[in-house]
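Q: Convert this sequence to C-alpha cells.
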Amino acid sequence: MKKIIVAGIGPGSAADITPAVLEAVREADAIVGYKYYFRFVEPYLMPGCECVDTGMKRERERAEQAFRLSEQGKTVVVISSGDAGIYGMAPLIYEMKRERQSPVEVVVLPGISAFQKAASLLGAPVGHDVCLVSLSDLMTPWELIERRIEAAAAGDFVTAVYNPKSHGRYWQLYRLQEIFLNQRSPDTPVGYVRQAGRDEQQVVTTTLGAFDPEDVDMFTVVLIGNSQTYVSDGKMITPRGYYREMAAGGSVGQQIMMESFRTIRGELKRKDYPLGHLWALLHAIHTTADFDMEQILHTDEQAVENIYNKVIGGTLKTIVTDVTMVATGIRKAALARLGIEVKCYLGDPRVAAMAAAGGTTRTQAGMRLAVEEHPDALFAVGNAPTALMELCELVRSGKARPAGIIAAPVGFVHVKESKHMVKPFRQIPKIIVEGRKGGSNLAATLCNAVLTFDDAAQLKPGRDL
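A:
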C-alpha cells in the first residue's frame, strides 16, 4: 500500500518550493490539486505522472480521488498553495483517512505560507506573537469569525488576514477594520501583498486608519501590526525586544515605563485622542492605575502643545506648585535639561505671616506671593482647592497671567467648584482632573507630560528618569 503526501508548494514562486516537496513531486505517480497550481510543479514531474484536477472549491472530491489512487497502490502527492496545513488540504486528508478507516499512510510536507512570504516582502512584521484569521465564512459561521477577530485585536497580536475579500464577501474586511480600530491606534502599521511571489506581485504599506479594503482581493494577504510595530525605510518591523535596552538609553526604568504606556494605550476605550491629550492621559493613568482618567481628564485643545511651546520658546521659565509634594514629583533631569525652576511657597516664612494676618490658608497666601513674583508661571495645583480658587481670583483681578494651569486638587470640600472656576479662562491652556479625584502625584506627572512632550510621537516616556 502506497501513501498520500500532502505538500505545500509555497505562495507561487518556484524558488519558494522546498527541496523535500520537489523530491516528493519527482517520485509521485499522481498529482492531485487545483489545476492553477500544476504549472509550478510540472517541470519536475516524472514521465507518465497522472495529474488530477477536481476544479476550484472541490476540496472534498480532490481528497477522495487521492485516496482512490493511493489505494490502487500509487504514491499520490496532493498539492496546496502555501503551507498545506494552513487553510490547506492536510486537515481534510487526515479527517478523511479517519472516516474511511484507510490504512494509507499520510505524510505532510510543510511549505512557505502566504503570510510568511508576505511578511518577508513587507519587512519583519511578525517578529512577535502572531495569529491568522480567515474571513471566509464558507465553513465557519461569521459570528465565530468575528469573535476571533475581536480576540486577536484585544490581545495585541500581529494579525494575518487570509481570504480578505471576494466577489460575494465585500463587507467583512470593513468590519474587521472597524473592530481593530476599536482596540488599536489608527496609525498602527498595516501591510498587504497581492499575488506574493508571482509576476503580478504588489506590496503596499499603510496604516490601520488609512487602509482601504477596496484595494485588496482574494489573492491578497493583509498583515496588521501590533502596538509595537513601526515602519522604518518603508519596512514594517515588529520588535522582539533585543534592542529594547538600546532604545531606552540603557535605563531599566524607562523600559518598564515604555512597556506600561503601550499596555495602557492598548486598553484605552478610545483610540484616536489628539497626541497632546493622549500623552497627558497616559501619564495620568500610569501614575494612578486608574482608567477613570479617560473620562475625567480634561485638556483644552492643544493645551499640552501650547504650554510645551512656551517652554522651548523660552517664555516659560517657572513652575509654581501649591505643595512641596508636587514639586518633588517633577523630574529634576527634565527641569535641568530645559532650564526650568520649580517654586513652592508653602514653607516661605512670609507665607505664615501673610496667612495669620489675612485670615487665609497658607496655600492661599503662598499663591498670592507666587503671583507677585512669577505672574506668568505654569501653576500646578495638586492638593489644595483653596490655592486654585485664590489663583482664579488673581487671574480675574489681572494680577496673574499664567502660562498654563494644571488643576488637580483632591478632596471633598470645594474641590469640584475650584475646577469649575478655572474653566472660563479660555485664553489660558488648562489641564484639569475633573471631580473629586486628583493629588500631588497627578499634578506632578502632568507637569512631566508637558516637559517631555517631544517624546510623545514615539511613545517613548521616561527619558529623564
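The chain is about 40% helix and 15% strand.
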